[in-house]
Amino acid sequence: MKPSLACVCLLSLGVACSAGGGGTSDSRGASGASNSAGAATNAGGNSATGGTATSGGSAGTASATAGASNGGSAGSSNGGASGAGNSAGAGGAAGTSATGFKCPASPGTFTLPTGKAEHIPGTTPVDSFNMNAGFTNVEGPVWIGDSLYFSEMLGGSLPPSRILKLTPPGNTVSVAVADSGSNGMAVDSNGNLIAAVHKDGSISQVTLPSGPVTPIVSMYMGNRFISPNDLAVRSDGTIYFSDPNYQNSTNPPPQTAQRLYRVTPAPARTVSVIADAPMMPNGVTLSPDESTLYVDGTTGLMKFAVMTDGSLGPASMFVMNYSGDGMVVDCAGDLYVAGGSSNVTVYSAAGATLGTITTDNGGTSTNVAFGGADHKTLYITAQGNDGQRGVFSIVMPIAGFPY
To answer: Nearest to residue 135, comparing CAs of 114, 165, 155, 113?
Structure first.
């Protein structure tokens, strides 16, 4: 999330898709390990809680946790039964992940929907958290199980933040975590909610339905991160995240630069800096086949080739002179970028502009996610005053990913 005029202020999901729209296939359901809370140590020797891995399952298998988890029924995780995911890389067969989502074998092609994305009433319930705030920011939408989770935060440095839960078809809204300190959020291949947390400068796992928020990594070279903003989680557990200063105006800052980071899978959880990232990196997402990492910032929308081990090749410019915010991809590999206005701009994997989706009287759009039973509902979060802020939705002709 970037600062607004009103205040000073993101892949693995166990998803599996077969080839389509440009010949890519989804590897975002491959997983060979399940995460449990434990100690993780970063490159600077600083220990952070959470994120160790237990062995079990060959690549391409997503394991559902026994018992009710994150709102799922007993014996399932996030409402999805365990099942075989496809192997990483192009050409993998379609499969079902622990989260239960599967891209269609023929995802189709993007067509611009008619009309505007409509505001969902009550998506920022007026209560003691925001009733005197006027402006708040809504960010980090992620679909898990049968619900959309998203962050709401106030303005200022290290602002209070909470996680709200929206559940269709009645669109009931409840407070999931009252004091999360979160911004962008993601879901990993085991159905765990992973959050970028500016409160303590961490990347954390959020245990649903109501917490706790447990740090996975929180430091680099002996100092906390500035203000983790957005993230993407690869199917092997690799985490890519941005760390601008939008929610932390500390001077001097805890880090010497605003950077893009890579965190290796558990148990090592080694933190390294990704070179060539745009200035003030912000939105982060992976392509369906995990071969490309997209990152935006104040110097443009860039892309990186993702290597087999999770490291990145040199950056290349994807869209010049564009500064967006949160992003998501559909099953055909098209990229949806929020930010800059009330719009979401859609690009093909080749960088061609496919169209613009607009919210109906919404504030500045901040992030996007697909959800619903068929993953064809596009959810758009927006910051602003009461009535402008919250969650907007529009039905799409093509399914997409949950964050």
So the answer is: 155
To which residue do tokens 């990152």 refer? 295
Residues 6+ apart with CB under 8 A from 245: 226, 227, 253, 258, 280
Among the listed residues 396, 373, 333, the one whose alpha carbon sits nearest the alpha carbon of residue 99? 373
Return the bridge partners of 286, or none.
Answer: 293
Q: Return the DSSP state at 269.
A: -
Nearest to 208 by CA among 171, 180, 249: 180
Q: Token match 């998501």: residue? A: 328
Q: CATH assignment of 33-395, given 1.20.1250.20, 1.25.40.10, 2.40.160.20, 2.120.10.30?
A: 2.120.10.30
Residue boundaries of the structural domains of the chain: 33-395
| Residue corresponding to tokens 């490309």 | 292
Q: How do the pLDDT tens digits run along the chain, 403 residues long?
A: 555 434 333 333 333 333 333 344 455 643 333 333 333 333 333 333 333 333 333 333 333 333 333 333 333 333 333 333 333 333 332 333 334 467 888 898 999 999 999 999 999 999 999 998 889 999 999 999 999 999 999 999 999 999 999 999 999 999 999 999 999 999 999 999 999 999 999 999 999 999 899 999 999 999 999 999 999 999 999 999 999 999 999 999 999 999 999 999 999 999 999 999 999 999 999 999 999 999 999 989 999 999 999 999 999 999 988 889 999 999 999 999 998 799 999 999 999 999 999 999 999 999 999 999 999 999 999 999 988 999 999 999 999 999 9
Of 183, 143, 135, 134, nearest to 163 (Cα)? 183
Short-list 259, 264, 293, CA closest to 279? 259
Neighbours of 390 (CB within 10 A): 28
Instruction: Determine the Cα–Cα distance for residues 377 and 369; give it in Å rounded to an integer.
Output: 8
Q: How wide is the angle at C-alpha 399 spanned by C-alphas 137 and 363, nearest 5°?
A: 20
Query: Does the N-terminal peptide bond of residue 244 adopt cis geometry, omega within 30 degrees of 0?
Result: no
